[in-house]
Amino acid sequence: MQAAVMRGILGLAALLMLLSVNAAEAGWCGSASRDNAIIECGYATATDCQQSVGKGGVCFIDPDVALKSRASSARQVSHSKS
Question: Using alpha carbons only, how large is the chain's radius of gyration in Å?
Fold first, then answer.
């Protein structure tokens, strides 16, 4: 029971992170599970990334895009408070 609650919380956290990045700007990065695999970015969607990296690979939102989106949102909030 406790494990199911933790999975639910982690799933919700992941969803909120994905929603915090503008979907139109979201670039995806991924890495295959083979030895010496490199991280490649530029996938348009999570599905594109998953198809490319294959079973056992990992896909995630491009950190540069996510950080740029957050910084832009923070500037908009600070300007609206002025």
Answer: 16
Range of the domain at 46: 2-81
Cβ–Cβ < 8 Å for 72, 64: no
Cα 18 to Cα 12: distance, rounded to the nearest angstrom: 10
List, as one string, the DSSP characters of 19-38: HHS-TTT--EEEE-SSTTPP
pLDDT digits (tens, 9 = 90+) for 4-58: 655 656 555 554 455 554 444 569 999 999 899 999 999 999 999 999 999 999 9
- What span, in angstroms and rounded, lies between the C-alpha atoms of 54 and 33? 8
pTM of the model: 0.52
- Total domains in the chain come to 1
